[in-house]
Design goal:
Elements lengths: L9 H15 L2 H13 L4 H15 L1 H20 L19 H13 L9 H5 L1 H15 L7 H15 L3 H13 L4 H15 L1 H17 L1
Length: 217
């Protein structure tokens, strides 16, 4: 799905809009974005997974309202005789390692950095959050193959930018976005697309972080 250094695809643009509007709780505009996502070729199951993924970064209330809004959209389209492609279901995850180790491996793959031997920072301060992140976010969620790592990072960047005041996490995920194939041009285009949704101030803050990350590469 990555556009190989070109601009973001229409599906990628739809992912940004859907995720950011869900995080904002802007359900009226979300309905339009969901319709545009379907028209751009995203399947019903891909959009459901986008909305499920948002909960890890903006909570169940926003995610569930997004899903309820999507239900309305799908039902309205069915009533008009529009049949949207369901798409594939998530494959069963088969792994011998425990979830913590699986999540650790996924995180290392995304960051291209070995995990530290000892927990540091917030993870050392509250080790249970490290467990939740490794076992649930990076194992339970990121291992689901309905979306690619690149698509999941696009959702993540959109939600974090929309909620604001999370620059350290945004910086980390922008670096991951580069690791999974997004180009500097695409990250700058991301800011252009998300600005009308999240507002000038939050978009400016996100742009500053994008520039910092790109300068460091």
């Amino acid at each position: 799905m990555i556009s190989n250094g070109k601009g973001l695809s229409q599906q990628e643009k739809s992912i940004i809009s859907i995720a950011a509007l869900t995080a904002k709780g802007d359900l009226e505009n979300l309905k339009s974005a969901l319709k545009e996502g379907l028209e751009a070729g995203l399947t019903v199951n891909e959009i459901k997974e986008i909305l499920v993924h948002t909960y890890a970064y903006c909570g169940f209330p926003r995610s569930i309202r997004g899903l309820q809004t999507f239900m309305e959209v799908v039902n309205e389209r069915k009533a008009k005789g529009i049949t949207d492609k369901m798409g594939k279901e998530a494959s069963q995850i088969k792994a011998d390692d425990n979830k913590y180790e699986r999540g650790k491996k996924v995180l290392e793959e995304l960051t291209k950095t070995p995990s530290p031997e000892k927990l540091v920072g917030y993870a050392a301060f509250a080790p249970v959050i490290d467990t939740f992140l490794k076992e649930h976010l990076f194992a339970d969620i990121f291992e689901r193959d309905i979306l690619t790592y690149a698509q999941r990072e696009l959702v993540t960047l959109s939600v974090i930018s929309a909620i604001g005041d999370a620059e350290p996490m945004l910086k980390g995920h922008l670096t991951i976005a580069l690791n999974v194939g997004f180009s500097p041009k695409q990250l700058n285009e991301f800011i252009t697309i998300i600005q009308p949704i999240i507002g000038e101030n939050k978009a400016k803050s996100a742009s500053v972080v994008v520039n910092e990350v790109l300068k460091s590469k």
